[in-house]
Amino acid sequence: MTALLVYVDDIILAGNSIKEIEHIKVLFHNAFRIKNLRKLKYFLGFEVAISKKGIHLCQRKYALDILEETGMVGSKPCTTPFLSDTSSVYKTENYLTNPNSYRRLIGKLLYLTNTRPDLCFFVNLLSQFVHSPTDYHYRALQHMLRYIKSSPSQGLFFVADSYIQIKAFSDSD
């Protein structure tokens, strides 16, 4: 199986046969003149760092942009992704008068979970309240942003000597 993920002028090839991926890469190179991804690249908002030890995928710039947009750059970092008191999650009081910023932030955090599995559960939990978020939900999002601030470069690391192979190709410099 080979999958082609296309976004504007970027293509991600993924599959279980490196031979098939190489064949498709040759076809694309003949038609579009592609180049191999080297060292550090920004790809669909992802930062890809390749070394002898492995491949690190993160969204550091995206995470820092979220912190800047929300005014949380100067906030105090925290070590946990969610508030310790979860009793108020399902309370139906103190609704936000304008939930648009909450909704927009949930969308951004959902995209950040591509490389941050540590956020998945809590972003999913808070996304259940986009129709009518409360002050508590917004405070929980702010706490999560403080957690992201503590490690904006956190991401996925794929060890080089693993049997799993990741290859990336790009048509841009």
Succession of helices and strands: EEHEEEEHHHHEE
Termini separation (Å)?
A: 28 Å
The helix-and-strand class reads alpha+beta
Approximate strand percentage = 15-25%
In percent, how helical is the residue content?
25-40%
Which strands sit side by side, in order, in the main sheet? 4-5-6-7
Please report the number of helical segments. Answer: 5
Structure characterization notes:
It is a single chain. The protein has 173 residues and is an alpha+beta fold. The chain folds into 2 domains: 1-33, no CATH class; 60-150, no CATH class. The protein has 5 helices and 8 strands. The chain has helices spanning 18-32, 60-69, 100-112, 120-127, 135-150; strands at 2-7, 10-15, 35-36, 40-43, 46-50, 54-58, 155-159, 169-170. The strands form 3 sheets. A 4-stranded antiparallel β-sheet has the order 4-5-6-7. It has a two-stranded antiparallel sheet with strand order 1-2. Helix 2 (60-69) packs across helix 5 (135-150) and helix 3 (100-112) runs antiparallel to helix 4. The protein is elongated and about 60 Å long. InterPro entries: DNA/RNA_pol_sf, RVT_2. Residues 6-83 form the Reverse transcriptase Ty1/copia-type domain.
